[in-house]
Specification:
The protein has 202 residues and is an all-alpha fold. 72% of the residues lie in helices and 0% in strands. It has ten helices and no strands.
């Protein structure tokens, strides 16, 4: 399916691009949220990712497997390029009253409360990682890409992915060690939070 889809996308087939969006928009959105930590920013990243994918369609190889690594790579680059403006946007949103927004959004995300809670628990630790470490963690651990696919997405050697992921996991284990303070995570919760939350590899 993906080989045929690649050819149709390269040819500028709008229906094929619609199929691409339907198949991978959720994965791109989840990846973007894990990199930005903000729902609105993640939605912006999704839009910009598919706009860039359309603009770059002629560079797509006709032969190959899943298009997911290609899209997640674009999403990672979009996040990098928009990070400054995203930070300004988040800061502005943070100054707005939040209670009503949370209530309005609650019904939509009811089924995802557990995943959101887990991400909130590790947010502080994740922010202490270097950007390349956060990116490879998001691709390999949460999006479920293997080393080769993550390397394709990031445009780096497989060995670089391996070393970044090792450093990221080592640092997270250190940063999330319980210190006895209130609100600290206990062993089982920590393992769940940083363990794989895979979406599957299409």
């Amino acid at each position: 399916m993906d080989t045929n889809l690649r050819k149709r996308i390269r040819a500028g087939d709008h229906d094929a691009f619609g199929d691409l969006f339907d198949a991978y928009a959720r994965s791109v959105y989840n990846h973007a949220f894990r990199l930005t930590g903000d729902w609105a920013s993640a939605e912006d990243v999704v839009s910009l990712t598919f706009l860039d994918a359309w603009r770059l369609r002629e560079r797509l190889d006709e032969e190959g497997g899943s298009l997911r690594p290609w899209l997640l790579g674009i999403a990672t680059n979009v996040t990098r390029n928009t990070r400054r403006s995203a930070r300004r946007h988040v800061a502005a949103v943070a100054r707005l009253p939040r209670d009503e927004a949370v209530r309005d959004f609650a019904d939509e995300v009811a089924g995802r409360v557990d995943a959101t809670a887990q991400l909130a628990l590790v947010r502080t630790a994740l922010e202490r990682l270097r950007r390349p470490e956060r990116e490879v963690l998001a691709l390999c651990v949460w999006s479920g890409l293997d080393y080769r696919a993550a390397a394709e997405a990031l445009g780096v050697p497989v060995g670089t992915v391996r070393s970044r992921l090792f450093r990221a996991r080592t640092k997270l284990a250190k940063y999330m060690e319980p210190t006895g303070g209130r609100g600290q995570m206990k062993g089982d919760d920590r393992t769940t939070a940083v363990g794989p939350m895979r979406e599957g590899n299409r």
